[in-house]
Design a protein that fits this description.
By secondary structure, the protein is of the alpha+beta class. It contains 20 helices and nine strands. It has two domains: 422 residues, Sodium/glucose cotransporter, CATH 1.20.1730; 135 residues, Thiol Ester Dehydrase, Chain A, CATH 3.10.129.10. Strands 3, 4, 5, 6, 7, 8 and 9 form a seven-stranded antiparallel beta sheet that branches. A two-stranded antiparallel ribbon has the order 1-2. Strand 6 and strand 7 form a beta hairpin. It is elongated. It starts with a helix and ends with a helix.
Length: 611
């Protein structure tokens, strides 16, 4: 139960009553359920058995790594900020007697205590044992909820069931409802797709041979009930508080906020013998701790995997255990939370990111899971520019209470992603169909006769293609591609007359060896400490070619990780048409005992400039 769901359920109930609470709680539950159902489909569609979802996520997450990280930072920052602002601040404030320095110091200490507890629980309960830890905390949470329900009849909400909408004392007119409704529905339905905590849990559920779908349906119900409980408690306070209820007016935007409505109500009863205030504060603390420890575990998993596979030269200068640890990130989270506190922010200022900035990325992430033509490279600059534009538009609309700008900030990213996917699909279809039509038309006898070229004079010698300078018998580089050309002869063909399919891997192999020779001229099999072996080879056949056609193979370094190197290749014919493409994975072993090695430094220095 992150800070946004926990405290915004009070604010939305204050503004619009039960109607607002249901508008907030239902999309939350549906968003979780949809994530579970759809990731179950993804897990079944991809090979790998119990590891299929983990293998899929490794490839899927690569272009979204920075967004995943930022999403997690904002989520945890607003959670810490919300607990400090709406629980501890109302409790500390009456006791400080106008000492802002001491109050600020107290809030700083609270922030770091919360972060330390999150780190402690995260280290104690990894993803395999977090169920046990959360089950124990969940039992304590049920005791807290039961204690509150025993003393308060939440079926009798009184006037609080309608909220403060329409009350001239506040600024929450009924028309304002839709300004919140549409962005909340959009953000909550797509939000889980960028949450590392959800992806890690889904992967672990699948590994344990459980149903992701049923798990998230059950989790969505739990989340819905917790939101309903907290929002209803806020409405009960509005309808039954003997001394009324107080709200705050922000000095930044002039809007009224009541996130701490319940805290202030129970805070005044701490001096009595009632257990209800203790139960309520325990409820809030447990909800936040189960978010912080889960965030710690997810960050540790995500950072560890990416640092392990990264070969960035700058990262290599910093100790990997430090980069892979969530603790530096938690320090950043603490700074952001304190900045929000001292800047007099509200949790809605963080919420703006989830209603606008992250919407386009989340929608594109869903599309890349299910729409084949959306697998093109992620347009990072365009996506970031659109996200920033929508963020500013939405934030301005929120500040000036203009619903249409809030709609635009939330819906424009969806429209852009739909346009991005459909236009790519249209171009792909036009290209494919144009090729089919051209090939079909070329077989019509009349067109054949018209298009038939004059018979060329017999070739007395084979002329190698010239590109990027004079052709070299040992191959040459064109940018990052190593290029080698050869001529197909009779021995390369089969009984039909086209080049035999098994020759293409041989062409690639020959080019690869020449690439090695060119990139590492000092490599000597007699003295080397390592051998380069082929781990896997893939090739997609696109077109055929025949005897005496020129075959040009291009090969380059595609990717690195700690153990393996990937080479990409393309094969072209005499007319420059693509004949096929593919990739291969290389591994490195000791020349003494064939033990698996990390990529040797001399290979890094030789290959890095061609990546």
């Amino acid at each position: 139960m992150w800070g946004l769901g926990l405290f915004f359920s009070v604010q939305i109930s204050f503004m619009f009553g039960m109607k607002g609470l249901l508008m907030f709680a239902i999309p939350n539950a549906i968003g979780l359920a949809l994530f579970g159902c759809l990731t179950q489909i993804v897990a079944k569609r991809h090979p790998g058995g119990h590891e299929s979802l983990a293998l899929f996520f490794d490839k899927f997450a690569k272009p979204f790594r920075l967004i995943f990280y930022i999403y997690q930072i904002v989520a945890l920052s607003l959670t810490v900020f919300a607990l400090v602002k709406y629980l501890f601040l109302p409790l500390f404030l009456p006791t400080q007697m106008g000492t802002p320095v001491l109050l600020g110091l107290s809030m700083t200490m609270v922030v770091f205590v919360l972060l330390a507890m999150g780190c402690l629980f995260g280290e104690e309960f990894g993803i395999g044992k977090i169920k046990a830890g959360h089950a124990l905390l969940g039992a304590l949470l049920l005791v807290c909820v039961g204690t509150i329900l025993f003393h308060h009849n939440l079926f009798d909400l009184g006037k609080g069931i309608t909220g403060a909408a329409g009350d001239p004392a506040y600024d929450h007119s009924p028309n304002r409802f839709w300004g919140y409704a549409i962005p909340l529905v959009v953000g909550l339905l797509v939000g889980p797709w960028l949450d590392l905590q959800h992806w890690q849990r889904a992967i672990q559920i699948h590994r344990e041979e459980s149903s992701i779908r049923l798990s998230y349906l059950f989790g969505g119900v739990i989340f819905f009930l917790l939101l309903l409980f907290h929002g209803s408690l806020a409405m009960w306070v509005m309808g039954h508080a003997a001394d009324g209820f107080s709200v705050r007016k922000s000095s930044l935007d002039g809007l009224h906020y009541a996130h701490d409505l319940v805290t202030r109500h129970f805070g005044g009863a701490l001096d009595g013998n009632s257990l209800v205030p203790i139960a309520y504060f325990g409820f809030l603390t447990i909800c936040v701790l189960t978010t912080l420890d889960s965030g710690y575990v997810a960050l540790k998993w995500f950072l560890g995997r990416n640092v392990e596979r990264s070969e960035n030269m700058l990262i290599s200068l910093i100790p990997k255990p430090l980069i892979a640890s969530p603790i530096p990130t938690f320090l950043i989270i603490g700074v952001i939370a304190l900045g929000g506190y001292f800047g007099k922010f509200e949790v809605e200022y963080f919420m703006v990111f989830y209603a606008s900035f992250f919407v386009g990325y989340a929608a594109l992430a869903i599309a890349r899971c299910f729409v084949p033509n959306s697998q093109q490279p992620l347009p990072q600059i365009r996506m970031f520019s659109m996200a920033c534009l929508c963020l500013v538009v939405f934030a301005f609309g929120y500040m000036v209470k203009l619903n249409v700008l809030m709609y635009l900030g939330s819906l424009l990213p969806l429209v852009y992603v739909v346009w991005l996917v459909t236009t790519t699909d249209l171009l792909r279809l036009v290209t494919e169909k144009a090729g089919e039509v051209t090939r079909a038309a070329a077989e019509i006898p009349a067109i054949k006769a018209i298009a038939k070229p004059e018979t060329p004079a017999p070739r007395t010698e084979v002329v190698a293609p010239v590109s990027a300078g004079t052709h070299d018998l040992m191959g040459h580089f064109e940018g990052k591609w190593f290029v080698y050309s050869m001529v197909a002869t009779y021995q390369d063909t089969n009984s039909v007359g086209n080049v035999y399919f098994g020759m293409y891997p041989l062409y690639v192999g020959k080019t690869r060896e020449l690439f090695f020779n060119n990139a590492m001229p000092d490599f000597d099999l007699k003295t080397t400490k390592f051998y380069i072996l082929t781990r896997s080879f893939e090739h997609k056949f696109v077109r055929e070619t025949r005897e005496f056609d020129t075959i040009t193979v291009k090969i380059k370094v595609g990717d690195f990780n700690r153990k393996f190197c990937t080479l990409e290749h393309q094969i072209f014919g005499s007319e420059g048409q693509l004949l096929g493409k593919g990739k291969q994975s290389l591994l490195f072993v000791s020349s003494k005992d064939y033990g698996l090695l990390d990529i040797p430094p001399e290979v890094y220095s030789a290959f890095m400039k061609y990546l």
